[in-house]
Amino acid sequence: MKVALFLGCNIPARLEQYESSARAILGKLGVGLVDIREFNCCGYPLRNLDFKAFVLSSARNLALAEREDLNVMVLCKCCYGSLKKVAYLLKEDVSLRQEINTILNREGLKYEGDIEVKHFLYALYHDVGIEPIKEKIEKTFSDLKIATHYGCHVLRPSQIVQFDDPVAPSIFDQLVEITGAKSIYWPTQLECCGAPLWGINDDLSMDLTEKKLSDGKKSGADYLCTACPYCQIQFDTVQKMILAKRGGNHHLPSILYPQLLGLSLGIDRDTLGLGMNQMDITSIKGFLSE
């Protein structure tokens, strides 16, 4: 299996441990990664400002991957939602596809819709498979309780993203339980993390984050688990700000899924970038301190 890895903008700039841990586990699972250096922003920041610029930005990435005859694996859920939406629009609207391809042709590019866009979790579940991953597991964590945070852009709009059941998803929970941890039920699992409001209304953003932290804590979670840079930054960096500014007893560290799985696969802490997380993730049950 070989795919084009799409990192987006946030991960290289603000969350290097997501990239390093994802590369490490994918390498151990035999997934070949191709880096297309010409990839640009997915267009997400332009989505509600300049529709054509948004479409062109995503379409160019899709065309670059299609030129290499590679499906795209995406780590960021906002990037995933953008690329999936544009792929859907270009499939449904022939005139739009022709217009965009006219512009892409200036670079010798063209997009016909012959490749797939897959989120990292989806590819692990459907392409690598639960059983092959289990065969690689070296350590399990039977006493650990995890609250999975799906994020908004992989579930909605469901007819476009086609990731999982938007009301009762299970892929992420099943992937967590490969490690031996228990994926718990928590009422606000599918609610927004608050990241879209950060920088616009910080207090409301913190309110949404704090609500989820409180709910996860009350539901018995030892950790939150994410697979999106925006969500991880909100539950990690912004949570640290919340504790400093507001105090409270909702301390609930967040771990990236490839960090969690990487530990089960026997990958070392430095490669997984555990020390780069802002919240202390070594204090609970000695889980990560061994």
Could you characterize what this model shows?
The protein has 290 residues and is of the alpha/beta class. It folds into 2 domains: 2-120, Up-down Bundle (Glutathione S-transferase Yfyf (Class Pi), Chain A, domain 2), CATH 1.20.1050; 130-276, Rossmann fold. 47% of the residues lie in helices and 9% in strands. The protein has 13 helices and 8 strands. The protein has helices spanning 10-14, 16-28, 51-67, 77-92, 94-104, 120-128, 130-136, 158-161, 171-177, 202-218, 229-246, 257-264, 269-272, and strands at 2-6, 32-34, 72-74, 117-119, 145-148, 182-183, 223-226, 254-256. The strands form 2 sheets. Strands 2-1-3-4 form a 4-stranded parallel beta sheet, sandwiched between helices. The protein has a 4-stranded parallel beta sheet with strand order 6-5-7-8. Strand 7 (223-226), helix 11 (229-246) and strand 8 form a beta-alpha-beta unit. Helix 2 (16-28) crosses helix 12 (257-264) and helix 10 (202-218) crosses helix 11. The chain is globular and about 55 Å long. It starts with a strand and ends in an 18-residue tail after the last helix.
